[in-house]
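Why do we bother with a discrete structure alphabet at all? Because it lets us treat a fold like text: something you can write down, compare, and reason about line by line. To make this less abstract, here is a complete entry for L-threonylcarbamoyladenylate synthase. Read it the way you would read a sentence in a foreign language you are learning: slowly, and without expecting to understand everything at once.
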Amino acid sequence: MSTVFDCTNPDKREAGLAAAANTVRAGGLVVLPTDTVYGIGADAFDANAVRALLAAKGRGPDMPVPVLVGSWSTVDGLVMSVPQQARALIEAFWPGGLSLVLPQAPSLNWNLGETRGTVNLRMPLHPVALDLLREVGPMAVSSANRTGQPPAATAAEAEEQLGDRVQTYLDGGPSGDPVPSTIVDLTQGNPRVLRDGAVTREQLTDVLGVELEADR
């Protein structure tokens, strides 16, 4: 049985965040608003919850799940090191529509799929998402839709696709423009754009002082 909370109402927002935090801690799934599209999320360190997330979307571990964080400092505990290029991009574009792929810390006990020792990190620009992330810590979050279907721009669209596979829905109103985050790979020295999105290549070049390579 799913529960939907209208987070545009201050009283229901508080209740919704509390319910969502309890759901995540219990290994359940939550739909939450972000600054791009709605996401389906779980505790990043709960392998069973991440498997349930992938099953809810109808996809396998060959498409690993990104991780959302609630603060810049959280990144330091999740990766082997934060290179200067990453710090510059974080300062310029977080919270916002930029995802960074970095080598994960080898000590982490999580299973996000076939990541090949990397992790895709982002800090979303949405107050409901940030409040939840700061309460429960890093979350594995993917777009709130069944694989092959359009991403959800509202909680209702997410519920129509995912139904009772998700225990708690946080309705923050319509999402912003349905533009995905830009993904930049910083695992191999020279930064590479894996996916064009909300942050343009020109903006990235302005910060880094170099033109970014496209993924081949």
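What the structure line is telling us, in plain words: Residues 3-214 form a domain with the DHBP synthase fold (CATH 3.90.870.10). The mean pLDDT is 93.
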